[in-house]
Write a structure and sequence with these properties.
The chain contains 17 helices and two strands. Strands 1-2 form a two-stranded parallel ribbon. It is mainly alpha-helical. Helix 3 packs across helix 11 and helix 4 runs parallel beside helix 10.
Length: 326
C-alpha cells in the first residue's frame, strides 16, 4: 500500500472511539469529584485535582482534533459535541481555537503563527532556560501563583474574547463579521452554561461549592502546567529547519500519555504532516512512517517528559535564544 492510500485509510473516523474517550475523561473527572466530596477528607483533594486537571487537558486535546473536524464525520455533530463536551466546560470556544490553530498549521513558528508569537512574548516561555527557573515556574503553576496568567493566556480562546460579539449580541445588536459567533454557537453556549447553572441551583450547596473548588483549582494549576509543558514541547527548542524537526515527537510512557501527552498528541510531527489522521491512529501513522529512512533519521525525537525537560531546561544550559530554537 502506498503512502497516500495508507493515509487515506488511517484518516477514517470512528465515532464510537470518540464517544468512548469523551466518556472516559468525564468518568474520571466526575468520579474523582464524587469520591472526594462524599468522603470529604483533606488528603483526597490533591489527588482529585491532579486527576481532574489532567482530564481537562485531555478534553483540550480532543477539542484540538475537533478543530480539524476529526471527531465525527458530520461537521455539525463534530462542532456541537466538541463545544458542549470538551471546549466550553474548560472555557474554550471551538471557533476561536480553530481560527488560531489553523493559522498555526499554515505558518508554523512564523510571525503569522499567533500562538507561537504569544509564547515569545511570555517571559516564562523563554527556552531553553535554567533548570532552577523551570522548577520555580512549575511550583508557581501548582501553588495558584499563576492564576492571572492562566486567565490572560487563555483569553484569546475564550467565547468572551475580544471581537467575538457577545456584548453586542446580548444588547440585541449581533455582529455580522466573520469573527462573530453564529446562532448555533450561541445556542451551544447557552445550553452548556445553562445546564451548569441548573445543576448548581438544584444540588445541595455543600456539593456545589466543593465541585466548583475542585474544578477551578484544577483549571488554574494542573491544567496550566500541562498546557505549559505540552505546548512548549511541541515546537520550542527544535532545529526548525524542515518538516521533520519543526515540531517534536515524544516517545511517551503510559503515565505521561494519561497526563501531559493524552490522546496521541505526542505524535506531533506526524500530526503536522497529515492532520487528516485522527488522534487514535497517529501511532500507527508514526510507526509506518518510521519505515522511511529519511523520516527515521531526521525526526526530532525525544524520550519521555523527563527528556523533554532536559531539552527545555538543560542541566548545563546555554540559555541564549537563537532563531533556530524558537
Amino acid at each position: 500500500m502506498g503512502l497516500a492510500d495508507r493515509v487515506r485509510s488511517l484518516s477514517r473516523i470512528n465515532a464510537l472511539r470518540t464517544w468512548a474517550d469523551i466518556a472516559f475523561d468525564w468518568t474520571i473527572m466526575l468520579g474523582a469529584m464524587a469520591v472526594t466530596i462524599r468522603l470529604d477528607h483533606w488528603a483526597l483533594y490533591p489527588f482529585a485535582i491532579i486527576l481532574i486537571g489532567s482530564r481537562q487537558h485531555a478534553l483540550a486535546i480532543l477539542l484540538h482534533d475537533a478543530s480539524h473536524y476529526r471527531l465525527f464525520k458530520s461537521r455539525a455533530w463534530n462542532d456541537t459535541v466538541a463545544e458542549v463536551c470538551c471546549g466550553l466546560p474548560i472555557g474554550v470556544s471551538l471557533k476561536a481555537f480553530r481560527e488560531i490553530h489553523l493559522l498555526h498549521h499554515w505558518h508554523v513558528n512564523e510571525v503569522r503563527d499567533v500562538g507561537h508569537q504569544a509564547h515569545l512574548d511570555d517571559k516564562d516561555f523563554i527556552f531553553p532556560m535554567k533548570r532552577k527557573r523551570m522548577r520555580g515556574i512549575i511550583a508557581r503553576d501548582l501553588l495558584l501563583l499563576h492564576v492571572r496568567q492562566s486567565f490572560r493566556g487563555r483569553r484569546g480562546y475564550s467565547p468572551f474574547g475580544a471581537g467575538r460579539g457577545w456584548r453586542s449580541w446580548l444588547l440585541g445588536r449581533p455582529r455580522k463579521d466573520a469573527h462573530a459567533f453564529t446562532t448555533a454557537e450561541r445556542m451551544r453556549f447557552l445550553f452548556t452554561y445553562g445546564a451548569v447553572l441548573t445543576l448548581a441551583l438544584t444540588l445541595p450547596w455543600g456539593i456545589v461549592w466543593r465541585a466548583i473548588l475542585l474544578w477551578m483549582v484544577a483549571w488554574c494549576t494542573v491544567l496550566t502546567l500541562c498546557i505549559r509543558l505540552r505546548s512548549a514541547g511541541e515546537h520550542l527548542c527544535v532545529e526548525n529547519q524542515h518538516e521533520l524537526n519543526i515540531a517534536r515527537h515524544v516517545d511517551a510512557r503510559w503515565w505521561e500519555r494519561l497526563g501531559i501527552l493524552p490522546h496521541g498528541i505526542q505524535h506531533h510531527v506526524a500530526h503536522h504532516m497529515f492532520p487528516s489522521v485522527p488522534y487514535y491512529r497517529l501511532k500507527m501513522l508514526h510507526e509506518g512512517l518510521l519505515q522511511d529512512p529519511v523520516y527515521a533519521a531526521d525526526l526530532h525525537r525525544t524520550v519521555g517528559v523527563f527528556g523533554l525537560l532536559d531539552e527545555l531546561a538543560p542541566r548545563v544550559s546555554e540559555t541564549t535564544r537563537t532563531p533556530s530554537q524558537h
